[in-house]
Amino acid sequence: MRLGKKILRGLALLVFGLIFAAGVKTATTSSRQLPSPPSEVPEFTTDAEVQLAERLAGALRLQTVSREDRPVAAAELRALHAYLRATFPAVHGALQVETVGELSLLYTWPGQEATARPYLLLAHQDVVPVEAASESKWTHPPFAGTVEGGFIWGRGTLDDKGSVLAILEAVESLVRAGFKPRRTLYLAFGHDEELSGLRGAQQIAAQLKERGVRLDFVLDEGMVIADGMVPGARQPVALIGLAEKGYVSLALTVSAPGGHSSLPPPHTAVGVLSRAVRRVEDHPFPTDLRPPASELFDYIGPDLGGPLRFVFTNLWLLRPVLLWQLGQQPTSAAMLRTTTAATVIAGGAKDNVLPQQARAVINFRVLPGDSTAQVTQRVRRLIADPQVDVQPIAASQAEPTPVSSANSTSFRALTGAIRAVFPQALAGPTLMLGQSDSRYFAAVATNTYRFMPVTLRAADLERIHGTDERIGVQAYAEAVRFYQQLLRSCDREP
């Protein structure tokens, strides 16, 4: 009995000690947010905001749509180029402009110091199609470029003509103000990002590499300022993607002799294939809290309220609890594991004929730290059936991107510009689940960041690639101010 009491007393002291240490850690962990510096860029007047909106609306009327089954919209893209030349004459007078891959644009604004590290702002000109059946559901026609009710409506406002125009607006204003950059600035606007960027961004990156250009950083589209989407955050959170997940699609194929359905084997090709797919789905990849997703908690944890501040500032103790909790929801689990999605299955031609072949496709989004080869090997081990052939689809395969630094001068310049223009927002690094043109620049850039200076709520996310895509007139003006501030901030960095 005495020994039992001593053990219980010791366990109680241990628990108390852990709780006390965690409480001290929570109380003494200070914010990692930069102070909100005064913005160097004044706010736009109402009339100026309307003019910005109308210029973006003009670009939205050009249907630079990328479709899988049709040639690239060359005429519309060239019309957009002409519109940009007419709308931003100072940019086209001061910067060198090149056409790459026939329809992509590369701008160069030479810096005054040859040894200063150059950087690049990236966006794309093309947009996704609008499904014919959904056009009637739009508040305004998707390519009308309507400005009404405090919003700019149309396909491309968020993805990604809004970024193209906002960047050019910022540079135009700086050129007109007599700004002379110390560091060389590149602007790259691909024309086929929605078709994987093979003829646009990939060729621009290859051209810069051939010229021996080494970029300090690249900033592309991607994450946003999430309002009400980060649990425990009392204010919006500017999410900056430090890396992108990779992806690989595996084709599972089962071949069989076939024959009449009246004399079936124990398992047809369809049955064998179904069992293999289920086995893979029943064994998801384990969750793991690793960079860059883990860095978000370090950056915003001290500024959260309630229990989440306690959890995020004590991951040394509560990591398993957090992993379990986040792993329950698909949106958060996707940040913590390589995801599995069975997307295609086909087999058989007639109800009384045994199928001679059945095929399925499983798509995996690969977490940084994993590889497509590891995914393929794991799936083969899980299935462990010689009847099932597992092969990666070459056209649907890419490794995760390198993880960029959250401790670089460029990251500080980026977060500083965010805090100056959006002082109410927290800023933190994270993982981007999708892909962007920026992945092609890994060989020429020290760091790559993925961030759009637009505040969105959860309901707004479905507008991207969906119905009623739009951006607020004031929100678009803030995006222009952000790029103005960023260019000034970056020019002070070494």
Description:
The protein is an alpha+beta fold and 494 residues long. It contains 14 helices and 17 strands. The strands form four sheets. Strands 1, 2, 3, 6, 7, 8, 15 and 16 form an eight-stranded mixed β-sheet that branches. The chain has a four-stranded antiparallel β-sheet with strand order 11-13-9-14. It has a three-stranded antiparallel β-sheet with strand order 4-5-17. It is globular and about 80 Å long. The model has no long low-confidence stretch (mean pLDDT 92).
Q: Using only CA atoms, what is the Rg?
A: 26 Å
Report the mean per-residue pLDDT as an integer. 92
User: How far apart lie the N and C ends?
Assistant: 69 Å
Which band does the percent of strand residues land in? 15-25%
General form: globular
Give the biggest beta sheet. 8 strands, mixed
Oligomerization status of the protein chains: single chain
Helical proportion?
25-40%
Which stretches of 5+ consecutive residues score pLDDT under 50?
none
Number of helical elements: 14
What's the β-strand tally? Answer: 17
- Classification by helices and strands: alpha+beta
